[in-house]
Give the backbone structure.
Amino acid sequence: MRLMRIEIYKKVFFLFLLLVFKTNASTVWISSGIYDFTDDVSKEFYKYGWGFRVSCDFWQISALRLSATTGGTFSNVPYHGDDHEMFIVPLLFSWKYLLGSEQSKFYPFIGSGIGVYAKMDHNEYFPKKRYSFTYGYHFTTGLNYKISNRLTSKFETRYNILISPGTEEINSSGFDILLGIGFSF
Amino acid sequence: MNLLKYLRHLSFLLFYFAIMAGIFGCQNSSAPYYNDGDWSFVAFGDLRQGFGIYKKLAISMGSEKPAPLLAVCLGDIMLEPGNEAEWLKFWKYSDPITEKMPLLIVRGNHEGNDAASEWLYRVQTGIPEGQPFYFSKQVKDQLMIILDTEIPGEENSISNMQLDWLKAQLDSASISDDISGIFIFMHRPLYRQGIHKGETLDNAREMHELFKQNKKIRAVVAGHDHMYHYMKKDGINYIISGGAGAPLIHGYGGDYYHYLLFTFNDKINMKAIGVFNEINENRNL
């Protein structure tokens, strides 16, 4: 499990390095925070998730940005005398529109996009790990704070509306509430 | 040209995600159904406003094929006694069950036993005024006995008129050729588990002696403790099923959300099926 995660993240990190260098990305963001489920089943079972996101604004025109995001959301709850682990890997494509001037210290943004999500559930009593794949939409808003010419911090909330996979009734829609930092190239 | 470049990267990303999906195994996790008996019934207890988990379990119970002939709720549907909104929510989320089978309800301590709560209980469960909340129902060749551990003044016991009624039910069932087995349902268990281990029903010893005398009793099923627990004492199967949505008790085993599926063919089997349709317990009674 742990080795698999490491393997995945090595590959994701490699992917983003490629993206950054191949697309002349304007900004790479690293953020982390909590994932607040909106569906009753998920909220009662997983309580909440925590995780991180790596985003890359890979294209920009005026105040419009296109970005790709991945990362991981984790949850670990006691279940049947052991732990029940949940792991979501999203891959999101978003547009963001910066409101206000980039010259100012604070500037808010809004955006939306689409994404695909891989989810894994595991506990000792499952015969094997359970996987599901789905897609969804997201709407985002946040506030950037310019620390220096190259460094920017942000607070972001993203509402992920996931379509339940036909194979299970548990819906993983929820809010990402993130604090992050961006480095501009 | 730039657009082509970005599209190429986009397709690369999607391809990469597919590889990641491959790492995950990309398998179908469709819900299995375990009903392999000639007929079956389900039981669950203790929601206490955990309607999200209950909704998921209710869908699973309603999806059993062939449909169970009966569902028994072991009480503690709500948090606040006499709260009509919680009753309405319970019935709404019970739709997948009630569309397929009758649902019998055992009164829990959270349903309350003051006059207003009892009035609402009658309205919601259809028990007429003047009739007690304990009753029995025959399904196939099994007698289902629903007991009430919350009678005002007799809480945490089965006593007085109810005890006399129970003895009469057990006596008549023991000599009836139509009845080959008896299931007893009650909210408070004879022997509590988890953090309350050691506590008992006030007349647990008397009840246990009564059950021991009747060879047709297959199981005594209760809720109240938010967990699954099984024990066999002098040949009597005592089962606690209190994991239909209420906060679980951790650290004592059996801490998983579940419902019980009893199946009947040449033997009686019981499974505790979890929120992911996983089988947490599989036992012949």
Observations:
- Chain A has two helices and eight strands.
- Chain A touches chain B through 47 residues (CB under 8 Å).
